[in-house]
Each structure stands twice: as C-alpha cells, then as structure tokens.
Amino acid sequence: MRSLTRGATIARNLGLDEEAQMVRTSTSKLLEIQSLASALLLSVAASGLYAQASLDHTVFRSIATIAFCVALFCFMSATLMSVAFLVPLMTLSLDPRAVLHTLSPIFVWPYYSFIGGYVCTVGGATAYFLAMDIQMTHTMGCLVFCSCVAIGPTCYVLYAAMNIMQQGSMYSVVGDAVASS
Question: Cα separation of 74 and 38, whole Å?
C-alpha cells in the first residue's frame, strides 16, 4: 500500500492527470490481489500434486495427477503474468493508459489462467477423493454438497466478475485511450 501512495505522489509530480493516477492505482491493486491469490492457490495445487503419490494406482489417481499438474502451471503462470504486467504499469515515466492499451489483448490471460487453475484444482480434488478407499455413496454425497455450497457459487462469482471486468472502467479507459490516439 505504501508503494502505491508513493507512486501516486511521484506521478502527480510528473504531471500525470488524475485519471491516469487512478488507472495506475486501481489496475496495480487488481494485479497485486490477483498475483497473491494465484500464489496462494499455487501452493494448494502443489500440495495436491505431491499428496496424490500416496494413492493406489487407479484411473482416478492419474486424473488427479494431471489435474493438479495443470492447475500448478496455471496458477504459476497467473502469478508471473500478473507481476510481469505490474512492471511496465508502475514505470512512472509511462502513461498507464498507454500501457493498458498495449497490453489490452493479453491483459485477461492471468485471469483465465486463474480460472483454469481453479477448475483443475476442483477436478483434481474430486479425483483424489474418488481414488481414496471411501464408500462411493459418501464420496458422491460429499461431492454434491460441496458442489452446491462451494464449487457452484465460486464458479458463478468468477463468471460474474469476468463479465463485470469486461464491461468495467478498465476496458473503457483502454477504449478511450485508443479513441483519443
């Protein structure tokens, strides 16, 4: 938070207008939160990948292995891309609207990687529990309950957030920057 305040002060001294300062601050905060969430879930995917080694060799173990491996790389990519987008955005000599205009075609990649990682983590966790020696009725009951209480609502929120983000001010700022140039 301190770096954002310091960056806003320097940007004011460089003569960037208030809108450019707002774009820089809000977009950098978005990327920081996204990279933090991706990094935290990266550890979940890695733990799942290493935990599946203790399971019996079944088709569900193979599915868990593949799903956790894909999730691991999705979360790693989302983390690294979010941080990599912060570098040019926080370069104080650059106008953040121009940076977003340049990055606009690929700016959503970290978000899509995050969603892919989440879906693969859910799939890996499901396969992990199916590979365990638990009665199928208990496993299916747990899956139905978790789908209704956690998985379904989370997928809906991720979908809704993407729709809001596509219609939100970040993309209109990018569009305005394109129109004015």
Answer: 9
Residue 111 pLDDT greater than 80, yes or no: yes
Give CA–CA dist 116/52, Å, rounded: 20
Per-residue model confidence (pLDDT) at position 14: 54
What is the CA angle 38-151-171, rounded to 5? Answer: 50
Cα 132 from Cα 54, distance rounded (Å): 10
Give pLDDT tens digits for 52-83: 888 888 888 899 999 999 999 999 999 999 99
pLDDT(38) > 70: yes
Look at residue 5 and tell me whether its pLDDT is greater than 60.
Answer: no
Give the per-residue pLDDT at 94: 75
Q: Specify burial of residue 104 (Cβ count, 10 A radius: 0-12, 13-18, 19+).
A: middle
Three-class DSSP labels, the chain: CHHHHHHHHHHHHHCCCHHHHHHHHHHHHHHHHHHHHHHHHHHHHHHHHHHHHHCCCCHHHHHHHHHHHHHHHHHHHHHHHHHHHHHHHHCCCCCHHHHHHHHCCCCCHHHHHHHHHHHHHHHHHHHHHHHCCCCHHHHHHHHHHHHHHHHHHHHHHHHHHHHHHHHCHHHHHHHHHHHHC
